[in-house]
Amino acid sequence: MGKTIPRCLQQLDLRKSVVGLATGAGAVYLLYKAIRAGIKCQPPLCSNSPICIARLAVERERHGRDSGEIRRLLNSLECKQDEYAKSMILHSITRCVYLLEAEASACTTDDISLVGEMLDDKDNSVKIQALNALKAFSGIRKFRLKIQEHSIKVLELISTIWDTELHVAGLRLLNNLPLPDYVHPQLRRVMPALMEIMQSDYVLAQVQAVRLLSYLAQKNDLLYDILNCQVHSNFLNLFQSSQPGSLLFEVLVFAERLSEGRNSTHYRAVKWHYNEQSLHEALFGDESRLADRLLSLVIHPEEEVQIQACKVIVSLQCPQDLGSRPSACRPSHSYFKNGE
User: Fold this and answer.
1) pLDDT tens-digit profile of 88-142?
2) Armadillo repeat-containing domain spans which residues (predicted)?
3) d(CA 182, CA 128)
C-alpha cells in the first residue's frame, strides 16, 4: 500500500493540500480519503504472472467456480511447443494441481498419460517438470494406478541420466507411490544406480534414494539384491556425525531395516554369499566399523538421530525372532567385540 498511496494522492491532487493547506480536522479527513483511495487503487492485472494466475484461480474455486486453468494448460501442452514452453506449462500444471484440488480431481487418466508422455522428451528440464507434475497428481488417489504405469520409465531415467534435479524429482515420485511387484525386476537392475545416488554428495537426492531403499529392504525378494550390492570403501562415512541430521536419520532407518531383514527366520533359512565390497560386508561383516559409528551417534545433538542409532544397536544384538526373550539378546562379536 505504501507504493500505491502516493500515486493515488497525485491522481487526486491532494499531496499539496494535505501538506500545505489543510489543517486540523480537515487534514485528517483529507488524509483518510487519500488512504481509502489508495486501498482501492489496484495494480495492473499481471495476467502472465504465475502468481497472479494462481491467485485468480484459487479465488474462483473458493467461490465454487471452475477457473479452467488446469484444462487450459493441458490443452496448451497438446499443441506443438518448444522445450522451454513445455517446461513452463508443466511447472504451472504442478502449481495448479496443488492449489486447485477440485479441478485437479476432475482431470482424466488421459491427462495423466499426456503428462507422462513428456518423460520421453529429449530435454531434461521437461522430464523434470513432468516428474514433478506426476508427483502432484499422485496425491489424488484415483490417479495412482495410472501413474504407476510410468514407474519403469522413471527408474530408467534415474539410472541412465546423471542429473541431481532429475534424481530428486524421480525419487520423490517413486517414494509417493506403492510400487507393484512387476517393477521388481527393473528395481534389481537399477539397484547399483540407487546405491550410487545414495553415496553421492547431494543431500536431497541421497535422502530420497535411501528412503526408497529402506522401503525396498522390506521386500523379501529384494533384500539379498540390496545387501549384495557393491558400495564404496568409505560407505560408512554416511554414518559420520558431521552428516546432515536428515540424512543420518534416513541412513539409520535403512540400517535397521536391513538388520531386521537379515535376522528374520525367512532370510536365515538360506545360506547367502556376498561379495567383498558388498553393502552386507560394509555394515555387518567381521571387519565392519559400524559399531564405532553407532556409538558416536548415541550422543548426537539431534534426538531422533540418537533414538534411531539405539534402535540399530538393539537390532544388531537381538535377532528379530528372539527379541521377545531378553536372555537371547547377546552382543555379536562381529559388531560389539569384548562386550562393547
Assistant:
1) 999 999 999 999 999 999 999 999 999 999 999 999 999 999 999 999 999 999 9
2) 70-279
3) 24
Q: Quick one: which of 269, 278, 264 has its CA closest to 315? A: 264
Q: Cα angle at 301 between 300 and 307, to 5 degrees?
A: 55
Nearest in space to 216 (alpha carbons), one of 164, 165, 155, 166: 155
| Start-end of H helices in the chain | 4-12, 15-16, 24-40, 50-62, 69-78, 83-99, 101-105, 109-117, 124-137, 144-148, 151-160, 164-175, 184-198, 203-216, 220-227, 245-262, 265-268, 279-284, 290-297, 303-317
Tell whether pTM > 0.90: no
DSSP string, 49-64: -HHHHHHHHHHHHHTT
For residue 335, which of 280, 266, 268, 254 has the smallest C-alpha distance? 280
Half-sphere exposure of 123 (CA within 13 A, CB side): 14
